[in-house]
Design a protein that fits this description.
Layout lengths: L5 H24 L6 H15 L2 E2 H6 L6 E4 L2 E3 L14 E10 L2 E10 L8 H15 L8 H14 L3 E2 L5 E3 L6 E6 L16 E9 L5 E3 L6 E3 L5 E9 L6 E2 L9
Antiparallel strand pairs: 1-4, 2-4, 3-11, 4-5, 5-12, 6-9, 7-8, 7-9, 9-12, 10-11, 12-13
Helix pairs in contact: 1-2, 4-5
């Protein structure tokens, strides 16, 4: 969407506060010995307390309030009573929701407890790359140039990017134009970021894979060559200068 009034900006801020606070609290709540279903139910209650509705549930009938992916799962992981979190697990939580007609999206990867499996380096790379990408976005910048920046930074750090998972426009629905804000230079994409537009920028930084494939459950995605992936995501408003980071209170950069 494009922000044209103060009321629209206020609406986006409220929806973004709901998803950002939910993500932050879920990260604090997550611990070894807990099922991903219990973690998801906790997040669902927080969204409900804001009056917000789960975006994947509302849009796609997703079997959970949030997407929780663990270890080799890259994204869209289904919360389950059978999936018990272990010390050192790499976990990704993606929270998106609708509130009063406005939609916002954010996510982040982190380690459960002690980093015994040495995932933190990958996580830090994803966070830093997202920070750099977002702070290079303003009206008129080519979307493909931000993709090139993300892939270049990933390569510098010894990682790859997932080419078939992208950021996207957001605001009046979960996925809007621009539909593909890729993590690499897509030379066929000549579109530019537009001032006042709302976009969800997300990194997909991986150890070995370059594509994500859907598992038999129809939702969960894993890497075509295995390995691990870290994702971090903020919803922002594009300006002529520094972007407005609507989901900043999720504290994924802290």
């Amino acid at each position: 969407m494009s922000i044209t009034t103060e009321a629209e900006l206020a609406g986006m801020k409220k929806a973004s506060e709901a998803v950002a606070f939910t993500l932050k609290e879920m990260r604090k709540f997550a611990k070894a010995g807990m099922s991903t279903k219990e973690l998801d139910e906790y997040g669902g209650q927080i969204l409900k307390s804001f009056g917000a509705k789960s975006a994947p549930y509302e849009t796609y009938g997703f079997p959970g309030w949030t997407c929780i992916s663990v270890d080799n799962e890259f994204c869209h992981g289904i919360p389950s009573e059978k999936r018990i979190l272990q010390e050192g697990d790499l976990i990704n939580i993606d929270v998106s929701a609708e509130l009063n007609g406005f939609w916002s999206d954010n996510g982040g990867s982190f380690v459960i407890g002690e980093d015994i499996n040495e995932h933190q380096k990958l996580i830090e790379a994803s966070k830093q790359i997202l920070h750099k990408a977002i702070h290079n976005i303003k009206g008129g910048v080519r979307i493909s140039d931000i993709g090139f920046l993300i892939e270049t930074e990933a390569k510098k750090k010894g990682y790859k990017v997932i080419k078939n998972l992208t950021g996207h426009g957001v605001g009046r629905s979960l996925h809007e134009a621009p539909h593909e804000i890729a993590n690499y230079r897509d030379r066929f994409n000549v579109t530019r970021f537009k001032k006042n537009s709302v976009v969800a920028i997300e990194t997909f930084i991986s150890t070995t894979s370059t594509y994500a494939e859907t598992m038999k459950d129809g939702w969960t995605m894993v890497g075509n060559k295995g390995g691990f992936m870290a994702q971090h995501e903020h919803t922002i408003v594009v300006t002529e200068g520094k972007p407005i980071i609507l989901t900043e209170m999720n504290e994924i950069w802290n």
